[in-house]
Design goal:
C2_domain_sf; disordered N terminus; four-stranded antiparallel sheet; 5 helices; Immunoglobulin-like; neurexin family protein binding; mainly beta
């Protein structure tokens, strides 16, 4: 039923030793190196002040250097965060949406004890003009807290497709409350169609049909509505790990589907070495990536497991499956030897 297949042995070494928390964190750093930047636009917002004031900036595109430039000049009449001391320590942050993880954030320096900060700084993005024109600029102002409890002070969002690029002058813009479109734009990453099956040890009769240990089968069918990073689409592929194992033995991937935001992979992966009790401590992580020569860019992913936060008695941040993902995994555990079909939204990991 699938045009490609992979089969690898997956051993948990349950009776040898329990891996340390430190080893988990170092392994995950190699697997999800961009996960630290794939957060909500409003991550770290602990403030409750109302947006007010204005920001002065200008936009330009340097054709020669293929560089998008945001000239941040100053802000006026920002909200006061610390009312007792009558102060705010503001800075300006920018993202390109919808995929802020790809281009990353840029931010100015922090200006202390002022609601009228002057920056005169340029935030730069190396990006092709055609790609830029399918993005939105999210520019927000924040109060910087020494303990990381930053407060949102206001924002503006600009559709760069309709921007007047002949306008290179500094202009004033009113700061607005949080934009729902910015949050939704980041969160929607596409939907993966897949099927999974668990084959318990000894469930298929006598050898050679009978697997000496349990097997988890993962059939990655297709993905719909991926983020379009280029006018021509994306060159996508899917990575798979069974956590907590992030070794090369656990790593599998599909072929690359070029120039398509609705790629069909039709790829099956089989992991053996599974005992039934392992299913409550393991987690299948499927991530979708855009392939480029120098680096691959994270598009979204899912984690299939029980979402308990624990793996073999150790607290881990990757055991964070959503309700939909948990229900999918539980259905597989109950209906052994049967393909369980699912349609799951991709998310930030």
């Amino acid at each position: 039923e699938s045009d490609t297949a992979s089969e690898i042995s997956f051993q948990f070494n349950r009776h040898k030793k329990t891996p340390s928390i430190g080893s988990h964190s170092s392994d995950m750093a190699s697997v999800s190196s961009v996960s630290g930047s794939v957060l909500s636009v409003y991550s770290g917002d602990f403030g409750s002040v109302d947006a007010q004031g204005t920001v002065e900036f200008a936009l330009d595109y340097d054709e020669k250097n293929r560089e998008f430039q945001v000239h941040v000049s100053q802000c006026k009449d920002l909200a006061v965060v610390d009312e007792k001391k009558g102060r705010s320590d503001p800075y300006v942050k920018t993202y390109l949406l919808p995929d802020k993880a790809r281009m990353g954030k840029r931010k100015t320096s922090v200006k202390k004890r002022t609601v009228n900060p002057i920056y005169n700084e340029v935030l730069r993005y190396k990006i092709e003009k055609m790609v830029l024109l399918i993005q939105k600029l999210n520019l927000s102002v924040w109060h910087n807290d020494p303990l990381g409890r930053n407060s949102f002070l206001g924002e503006i969002e600009i559709d760069l497709a309709s921007w007047d690029w002949s306008n290179r002058k500094l202009n004033w813009y009113p700061l607005k409350p949080r934009s729902l479109s910015a949050v939704n734009g980041v969160d929607h990453r596409g939907v993966m169609s897949l099927s999974i099956k668990y084959v318990p040890p000894g469930s298929l009769g006598k050898w050679p049909k009978n697997p000496p240990s349990g097997e988890v089968h993962i059939w990655v069918k297709d993905v719909k509505d991926l983020l379009q990073l280029r006018p021509s689409g994306v060159d996508s592929f899917v990575k798979c790990y069974v956590l907590p194992d992030t070794s090369k033995k656990s790593y599998q991937k599909t072929r690359v589907i070029k120039r398509d935001t609705n790629p069909v992979f039709n790829h099956t992966i089989v992991y053996d070495g599974f005992h039934t009790e392992d299913l409550k401590d393991a987690c299948v992580e499927l991530t979708v990536w855009d392939h480029e020569k120098l680096t691959n860019h994270f598009l979204g992913g899912i984690r299939l497991g029980l979402g308990t936060g624990l793996s073999y008695g150790i607290s881990v941040d990757w055991m964070d499956s959503t309700q939909e993902e948990v229900a999918f995994w539980q259905e597989m555990m109950l209906a052994t030897n049967e393909w369980i079909e699912g349609l799951l939204p991709l998310r930030s990991l």
